[in-house]
Predict the 3D structure of the following.
Amino acid sequence: MRYITLYKFTVERRLAMIPDLMEETRNYWHQLDELEAAYQRGEVSIAEVNARVKELMTDLGRSRRESLTYFWSGICRLWNDQRDAIVGVAGLGVLTYGWLLVR
């Protein structure tokens, strides 16, 4: 029972660390829509719009880099942990493909 609780805690902690790129993108578009509405109402100047858009793009770019880094580290960890299995399955695939061509 203790192992299951520890595993659940580890999974929840790992999931909390995953960057949520979809949510960040939705927030970006929502903030852009709000900024556009404020500009059309005349509440902000074009200079303020340009500065705010640059800020929003920087934040979204940071989120994208975090997501890509998380994805790449997962691929590297999988390769390091399961290298033999991956190479074996790839080898079987190549042999099967070759067998199908010869047959």
Observations:
- The chain has three helices and no strands.
- Helices lie at 2-17, 21-40, 46-102.
- The mean pLDDT is 87.
- The CA atoms of residues 55 and 92 lie 50 Å apart.
